[in-house]
Amino acid sequence: MKVTAQRGVSRLAPENTLAAFKKTAEMGYQWIEIDVQLSRDHIPVVIHDQSVDRCTNGTGIVANLPLKKLQYLDAGSWFSETFKNEKIPTLEQTLLLAKENKLKVNIEIKLYPEDNIELLCEKIKEVIMVLNIDTTQVLFSSFELTALKKMQALLPEIPRGLLWSVMPDNGLDLLQEIDAFSVHCHYRFLTAQQAVEI
To answer: Are 109 and 121 contacting, i.e. CB atoms less than 8 angstroms apart?
Structure first.
């Protein structure tokens, strides 16, 4: 069985931080799931929410803040004083840590209204290419079919998985459109018949 630590081991360290990803490796898990979006200066950063309010000591929309400002924030104290001054990591920092610790990475392409899908996908590709990340080490996932289609065009060798809360009636057709490797949906809403079909 392969175990994925969502946003790192987020019960033991602040989510989507290098501390949480290091904890994943220490505990022997094989995968981390991360959320990636762009800073104002178009650097892919690892954070789930549209704003920094919940998981840092700052306020504001991620896409409106430059990397320097994002990495100035304390992303650990909200969780525990033990993690005071933990930073919002870049995708580059996260992939380097994963590479060093032999972790596989599920990169969720996180999109909010008015985000530039094409630019985000292109910037993710740039980081992967610069770091020479093994394509077997990465999986792309997203709720946005358009984002996965873009990644299919940019990096076709990296597998793709669609995210759903509830699988739509035309789910199989959508999966075929992107030659999907996996389906990521809430188990409570997945029927036995759907599981067999996919």
So the answer is: yes
Check if the beta carbon of residue 13 is closer than 8 Å to that of residue 79. Answer: yes
- What residues have CB less than 8 Å from 160, skipping those under 6 apart? 139, 140, 141, 148, 151, 152, 178, 179, 180, 181, 182
Q: How far apart are CA 34 and CA 140, in angstroms?
A: 10
Q: What is the pTM of this model?
A: 0.90
* Phi, psi of 57, deg, nearest 5: -90, 10
Residue 192: is its pLDDT beyond 90? no
Q: What is the mean pLDDT of residues 55-63?
A: 97
Are the CB atoms for 32 and 103 separated by under 8 Å? yes
How far from chain centre, in Å, is Cα 5? 11
Helix, strand or coil, per DSSP, at residue 2: coil
Q: Which long-range contacts (CB under 8 A, 24 or more apart) does 101-104 make?
A: 101/21, 101/22, 101/24, 101/25, 102/25, 103/21, 103/24, 103/25, 103/29, 103/30, 103/31, 103/32, 103/137, 104/30, 104/31, 104/32, 104/136, 104/137, 104/138, 104/139
